[in-house]
Amino acid sequence: MTRIRLPFAALSFAILCGGLATSAAASIGYGLQPPGSFHAGEVVARSGERWLALRERGRHAELVSVRVAVKRVHDPLVDADDQATGEAVSAIRMDDATMLLRGAGLRAGTVNRASIVEPPSEHGLPAHRLSLATREYRIATRCVIEDRNATAAPDGPAAYTCSIDLIEGERRQTLMSLGASRESPGARLFFVSEAAPRLIFAGDLDRDGRLDLILDTTDHYNLNRPTLFLSSAAGKGELLHAVATHAATGC
């Protein structure tokens, strides 16, 4: 199946390959739907509904009001030859949509996109410097070693707890947390379950002058979980708040 490629509990490989049928909005009224093909039960959009399609063209981005098409398709991983249980999602008359969104404060029009610089990170894990108008942000991964006394050999594999944080000035917010490991001192850190969280979009989607993000908050190599974080929904002490997420498996 094709896919668009943060605390969350780790899911077992057996559950993931069994067909995770959860695709939900984290806040009532918001929705997030990637275009592409999915297993049955993973699609939240319905044919004929009106959504906002995020389109990116170079340094510019926009939200465009579109109708959504959802069609039954053959799922080569689970279907017999004469079955079609999969679902393909697209924006009608638009073939370059990055994501489909809807919810309070989101409307059609030009979106101020953040400029992104990606400096080398200490662990080789997600790290970005972002500029949005006069505001400067960082996405940083910090990892803390777990109890070294629990490790059989001082020079052997070590376990870490990592957080991916958004930082603006003195303010810091953890967007997701997950485990990581290092095979030996000096070796590169790797997230557990071969997870690969990544930034999908950064810009002012709700037009309040502050940064919003779409971030893949996956904690497993076989799971895609894009999550929409909006500044206008932020609570006390928050820079952003997760308002919608979409989960889909690969196998």
Structural class: mainly beta
The number of helical elements comes to 1
Write down the Rg. Answer: 19 Å
Order of helices and strands: HEEEEEEEEEEEEEEEEEEE
Roughly how much helix do the residues carry, as a percent range? under 10%
**Strand portion, in percent?**
over 45%
The best one-word shape is globular
Low-confidence stretches: 1-16, 18-25
SS elements, strand count: 19
What value does the average pLDDT take? 87
Number of domains: 1
Largest sheet: 11 strands, antiparallel
- How many angstroms separate the termini? 8 Å
Fold and architecture overview:
- This protein has 251 residues and is mainly β.
- The chain has one domain.
- The protein is built from 1 helix and 19 strands.
- The strands form 3 sheets. Strands 1, 2, 3, 4, 5, 6, 7, 14, 15, 17 and 18 form an 11-stranded antiparallel β-sheet that branches. Strands 8-9-10-11-12-13 form a 6-stranded antiparallel β-sheet, with no helix packed on it.
- The termini are close together.
- The N terminus is likely disordered.
Keywords:
19 strands; six-stranded antiparallel sheet; disordered N terminus; globular; 2% helix; 251 residues; mainly beta; 46% strand
Helix-strand blueprint:
Elements: H1 13-17, E1 31-33, E2 36-38, E3 50-57, E4 60-73, E5 86-91, E6 97-102, E7 109-113, E8 115-117, E9 128-132, E10 135-145, E11 158-168, E12 171-182, E13 190-191, E14 198-204, E15 212-216, E16 223-224, E17 226-230, E18 241-245, E19 248-249
Antiparallel strand pairs: 1-6, 2-5, 3-4, 3-6, 4-5, 4-7, 7-14, 8-9, 9-10, 10-11, 11-12, 12-13, 14-15, 15-17, 16-19, 17-18
